[in-house]
Amino acid sequence: MTPPRRQPARRRTATYATVPLAVAALLGAAGPTAPGTTGAPGAGDPYFPLSGNGGYDVRHYDLTLGYDTGSRRLDGTAVLTARATQNLTRFDLDLKGLTVTAVTVDRTKADFRRDGQELVVTPRHALRRGREFRVTVAYHGTPKPVTDPDGSPDGWIPTDDGAFVAGEPQGAMTWFPANSHPRDKASYDFTITVPKGRTAVANGVLLGESTAHGRTTFRWRETQPMAAYLATATIGKFQVERYTTRGGLRVFNAVDAREARAAAPVLKKLPSVLEWESRLFGPYPFRAAGSVVDHAPGVGYALETQTRPLYSSAPDLDTLVHESAHQWFGDSVSLTAWKDIWLNEGFATYAEWLYAEQHGGPSAQKTFDALYARPASDALWAYPPGDPGSGKHLFGTPVYARGAMALHELRRAVGDRDFVRILRAWATGHRGGHGTTAQFVRLAEKESGKQLKGLFHTWLYTQGKPNSP
Ligand code: ARG
Ligand code: ZN
């Protein structure tokens, strides 16, 4: 499920032999087969040019995984159901490391080769535009995380009792072949087999669990469209808690015993946090909820894995509120380009401010003022949140804090009622899909009847500390 592009992504007229390789990659002019029929090796995102691919759109991933926590070997079979968005003689999947043993397209053996993080697949027969097809990839090996431009580990991160599996922005490719860009969302089935005594936690609803010959298989299903970076298959020795909320949400919490005492009082608040957010942002977008609290020192971040946020240690309440807010902003309403990351992080951060304000903490204005008091030399003002410049700056203070400040300024300009209407209209109108900054600005103007381009220009796009608010 891919949103329409505003511009044609590839210009076939490019004489690619004369343009630099990276540019050729972006244009999708990549290869010796008939022009116009090979899928681009990237989704066209300048921050991560090789993330995602062109030429097809994935509808569903069916992942069957076996992980041996002792040897750290992963055995995988991925079945992708996709639709060709152009005539395709060849297409790429993102997969880094691991050994691929076989690829089939519609049950017919396909040629494949590896090229860095690209798995290049040539089906026996070209695929016609609009045609649905099924790719099966059999693979195995020892997954290794990638290091993101900001220095964080990303992907399949082994722990002492399993693996902490996160994927933002590019780590999905370390454990399954994917169209790994949030532009392409799909539903997922997971069948994960681990040694008995370990729990494998993925997204959505647990369909079943069975043990045989010392191994336990967990089957998970996420029916709502999900970006690859939000998929998880976190494995560990976990204490499991399951319940259904008054509102009918199915909650599954998995907690490492070493984090259990600190996590308990925070996890207890999950239903009330989700209820509070639902009142503010509109209905919770998914059917399942929960948390995975792992003990993964060295990871240093949490991730809003869809339906079930992932924490590398016991979260505090702010972090739970933040990752929960991402279920609306980031997970349900997804990015079309990483440059728009403030739509995720600024919103989730502002949810923390609002939660504090309404639960006996400082007002959002007070939080804003304390930040605004920081001198022009502070890292907060190092780059504008609407244009972080590169993948290195995706998760920096300007994106989170100044992004939230931009929303606070919007709130002050339009008033509380319209502000909440804008947030709800955003979450509801783009539910299960995508949104861009330009669309958000247009929506805010429409809902409030005010001219807001200047405000957003100042807070999202101006270099340095904006003049007094
Ligand atoms: N989206 C996560 C959060 O703010 C942060 C992910 C950080 N990832 C990274 N590779 N640095 O909740
Ligand atoms: Zn966040």
How would you sum up this structure, described in words?
Helix 6 crosses helix 7 and helix 7 packs across helix 8. This protein folds into two domains: 260 residues, Immunoglobulin-like (Sandwich); 127 residues, Neutral Protease Domain 2 (Neutral Protease, domain 2, Orthogonal Bundle). Helix content is 25%, strand content 27%. Strand 18 and strand 19 form a beta hairpin. The protein is globular, with a radius of gyration of 22 Å. It is built from ten helices and 21 strands. An eight-stranded mixed β-sheet has the order 5-4-8-2-1-13-16-15, with no helix packed on it. A four-stranded mixed β-sheet has the order 18-19-20-21. The chain has 469 residues and is α+β, with helices and mostly antiparallel strands. The protein binds arginine and zinc ion (ZN). Zinc ion binds next to helix 5.
> How many domains is the backbone divided into?
2
* Fourth CATH level, the homologous superfamily of the largest domain: tricorn interacting facor f3 domain
Summing up helix and strand content along with how strands pair, one would put the structural category as alpha+beta
β content, as a range? 25-35%
Instruction: Calculate Rg over CA atoms.
Output: 22 Å
CATH class of the largest domain: Mainly Beta
Percent range of helical residues? 25-40%
Shape: globular
